[in-house]
Amino acid sequence: MPVLKNRNPLLCFNDKGIYCEQADVYLDPWRPVDKAIITHGHADHSRWGHKQYITHHTNVPIIKHRLGEIEVAGKEYGETFSINNVKFSFYPAGHIIGSSQVRVEYKGEVWVFSGDYKVEDDGISVPFEPVKCHAFITECTFGLPAFKWHPQEQVMNEINTWWQQNREEGKTSVLLGYSLGKAQRLLHSLDPTIGKIFTHGAIENMTEVLRPLADFPKTIRITRDVKKEEIKGGMVLAPPSAQGSAWIRKMVPYETGMASGWMAFRGARRRRAVDRGFVLSDHCDWQGLLTSIKATGCERVICTHGYSEIFCRFLNEQGYDARTAETQYEGELAEMNSKEEEEKED
User: Domain ranges in the chain?
Assistant: First the structure.
């Protein structure tokens, strides 16, 4: 693509979020604004309080579930809409169901904000699609060479084997994963021939919203009426916030597992006090980030949340015009530590 022109950047960062001055619109703002373009439904990217939301149409029921009655417009992937002569469009990010990248074009200059993204096809999200641009805003959640993901099929085979072994030993398997995205990705690939699949209320509520958009096995919501004997030997999907709670004691005897990219670190499983760690992330690993950036053909890269300083330094060594920018996005740390999921389980 042509070289970026020497003028004010099309997108800039201020105390409210990523701002397009020409259109007077924000991308995934973290403070209330008049008009917000939203990449996906995770709480650090879609916040309450904006006057108007614009997002991909499959993300509309997700953010309505989380934020309540809001003014929101849904768009198709590749559909162009203009705001004050600035052209915007959404493209698949592959992160979770309904996730998007935002392409912004003005006077021949193209920027892309990736939001959160991954390159592996998880079977339920529309796969990531590289978008040609001059400047690319990328997350760096796992921007270290140490992060290298195994194929999803391999990880899910490990999870199903673990469940089968626990069932044979008379134990319940409790698998911890974020209620939006990770839980449905796990559910989609669980083997229901092993046994029954039970869900925490927060996960069941979100899965009900997403069932029209993907193929999921049958689940049973755990309520006070569900007996401990019925759960024994089954698979229980629960948010990380359930670990150590009174709710989880109903599962005894049980083993806990957690699915997260952070499980690649030896100490992470110990800190989370889980029996098994499964390395499965909805974000790119090191190579995924590099491959995606190269595919955009961009010359400028802005590195946000995660290992941004290290990743930015490497990109500059590779000849990119790379820099970092501060945001309030949290990547998979938000998925690990969120308390918003602590909905009533019945």
Answer: 12-146+282-331, 152-278
